[in-house]
Amino acid sequence: MASPPERTLHEPLRVIRLHHPRFAALDASGAQLYGGRWNSPGGIIVYAALTYGGAILETRVHANADRPPPREIAVITILPGVRVSEIDAYALPEWDHDNQIASRRAGNAWIDAGNTVALIVPSRAGAPLERNVVINLAHADAKKLRVESLGRVPWDLRLFVAPRAKPARRSPSPRRKK
Fold this sequence. Notes:
Layout: E1 6-8, E2 13-19, H1 29-34, E3 45-49, H2 52-63, E4 72-78, E5 83-86, H3 101-113, E6 118-122, E7 131-136, E8 146-152
Parallel strand pairs: 5-6
Antiparallel strand pairs: 1-5, 2-4, 3-7, 4-8, 6-7
């Protein structure tokens, strides 16, 4: 894949990151140790979403829990004048495969090129509409990021309730002849 298209922001881009309270909003240790859909282990990367709903959905999918995980809301602002890149789902076949080969290859190439601080990517959990943002904290423009904490996530517990089993339908009793 060629380098993803780049653009200069003309207005602030606010993205949402839900992070564990033990870690700072821009702590990249998870992606450094384990990698993510868009990076191999080792990158100084954090993931965010373009919307709060997208961030909730991504966190719920990755939490794999029956109760809400502790999370805090961080609004990360990428300032005007900063360049960002974007990958369109249709431009990268197989980006959503479980093996993550295509998405990691594209993300690693973006990191290695070092042209932009952020890469806007499709969200697998919120496909086809939601978008995530991969932020390269090793990029020079990462110093321009602004972070605002909005406190703990007020989880809607319905997201964590196991669906009730529907009662088994009994076959109707055979009718007796009169």
